[in-house]
Design goal:
This is IS5 family transposase domain protein. Pfam families: DDE_Tnp_1_2 (PF13586). By secondary structure, the chain is mostly helical. The chain contains 4 helices and 2 strands. It has 2 domains: 61 residues, no CATH class; 35 residues. It is 48% helix and 6% strand. The radius of gyration is 17 Å and the shape is elongated. The protein starts with 15 loop residues before the first strand and ends with a helix.
């Protein structure tokens, strides 16, 4: 299990948790299941027993990553120039609206 992910999902209860194959471990899956979470993580290629996961939900992961990539195209957000969380969140909101409007207009 990733050392960073160890305590990251302790407060998440009853959700689908999407991750790439780097988060595939039996211990991590057990921790997620103990909080009534559903792990949507593909198994690594070297697993002896293949893991079943919801492929439709996993496809949404690419959309989420593309969204964050588009947000980071704004230098101000990618470099985190804002000192206050409220102003940073405001610019994330503006960038999100910009992405939404571009996708609906075109």
């Amino acid at each position: 299990m990733s050392p960073v992910a160890g305590g990251f999902f302790e407060d998440i209860i009853g959700c689908y948790v999407l991750g790439d194959a780097g988060y595939d471990s039996d211990r991590y899956r057990r921790d997620l299941m103990s909080n009534n979470n559903i792990a949507v993580i593909p198994g690594r290629k070297n697993r002896k027993i293949p893991i079943d996961y919801d492929k439709k939900i996993y496809k949404l992961r690419s959309r989420i990553e593309m969204f964050f990539g588009k947000i980071k195209e704004n230098r101000r957000l990618g470099m985190r120039y804002d000192k206050l969380d409220s102003s940073f969140l405001g610019f994330i909101t503006l960038a999100s609206l910009n992405i939404f409007l571009k996708s609906t207009i075109s």
